[in-house]
Amino acid sequence: MHVIDALRTDFYDVELDGKPASSGDVFAQWNAHDRLGVLIYEPLAALGATHLIQLACMCFYDSKPVRRTERKIYPEMFAIHVGGWWGGHGNFDFWPPRREVQVSADPREVLGALNDFGITRLALPERPLRDITHRRKEEDCALDRLVTAVMYSPTGRVATPDFTIRSNNRRSERDVQRIIHPAQLSEQSIAQMEKTAVPVKETDVDFMPRQLELNANITEAIREQAERNRAALKVDGQISESYRFARLEDSLKRL
Questions:
Q1: pLDDT score recorded for residue 199
Q2: CA 135 to CA 196: how far, in whole Å?
Q3: Residue 188 burial (CB count, 10 A)
Q4: 3-state class of 134 per DSSP?
Q5: Residues with Cβ < 8 Å from 80, sequence gap 6 or more?
Q6: What distance lies between CA 75 and its chain's CA centroid?
Q7: Does the structure show a pLDDT above 60 at 203?
Q8: Are strands 121-125 and 148-152 parallel, antiparallel or unpaired?
Q9: Strand spans (E) along 7-87
């Protein structure tokens, strides 16, 4: 289902340095041209960045409300699978297919994808700094545009976090379950969705085939581990994830 109707900014409680904060403290000065890029290096890893992705979606719509009422478009964000396909994340609205892509594990190719997609807000898993030599001027190109870099953990909790995002509404977990346990929709369900005011991706003829293709390497054991990871994030019955900011220059040495 389109997050345009399913989620709201007030579903999330942000805490920065132990104090109440907001989406503006995570994504400072988000504007209508910002684009989120999420790097994925292992199976279903982006589930650990669920609330960050959803918060970015809300910033996308809040920065230009006409996107909710007239244009009704999907958020400009990209899931970039590195070194293989790590499961379909289309239910997070990485759709149409051009917004969920695969690149080789060569850091230069990863940076090239970030530049090609015009990423301004980067989410990447916790990875060590490395001595990476990128192609000439590619780092400058990225740094000219990047505003925010945030490290996440596939488990949902990073070491020494800078901030947490806690959901206060169970609806934020709906698409998590659809990613862990994708299900074919019945013709009746699709017909019902086609009657909604906002077109939804589930009615696209290539949506489910695409998700099945991306999930080819996702085993039942991986799904069970994903479920355990989510359960471990519960605080008073709601999911709380933690994150750490990265220096923009350093983030390009972690690819």
A1: 60
A2: 47
A3: 8
A4: coil
A5: 37, 38, 39, 40, 101, 102, 103, 110, 113, 114, 117
A6: 11
A7: yes
A8: parallel
A9: 12-16, 19-21, 36-40, 77-82
Vertex 72: Cα angle to 69 and 77 (nearest 5): 130
Question: What would the DSSP string read from start to end of 182-226?
Answer: --PPPHHHHHHHTTSSS--GGGSTTHHHHHHHHTTT--HHHHHHH
Structure confidence at residue 240 (pLDDT):
97
- Alpha-carbon torsion, ordered 4, 9, 13, 18, to 10 deg: 120
What's the pLDDT at 6?
72
pTM for the full predicted model: 0.92
Residue whose entry in the numeric block shows the structure tokens 């899931």: 79
| Cα distances (angstroms) measured from residue 120 to each of 51, 82, 166, 175, 221 | 18, 19, 24, 24, 35
What is the count of structural domains for the chain?
Answer: 1
DSSP letters for 90-120: GGGT--SGGGEEEE-S-HHHHHHHHHHTT-S
Report the distance separating Cα 185 and Cα 203, nearest Å: 9
Task: Give the confidence band of 186 by pLDDT, cuts at 50, 70, 90.
Answer: very low
What are 253's two structure tokens?
């040495």
β partners of residue 159? none
Q: Please state which of the ranges 4-8, 114-118, 119-123, 156-160 shows the lowest mean pLDDT.
A: 4-8
Q: Helix, strand or coil for residue 63?
A: coil
Instruction: Give residue 197's pLDDT.
Output: 56
CA-to-CA separations, 118 to 33, 110, 112, 144, 145, in angstroms, rounded = 10, 13, 10, 10, 8
| Calpha distance 215→87 (Å, rounded) | 4
| Segments forming the whole domain that contains residue 27 | 3-251
- Three-state SS for 26? helix
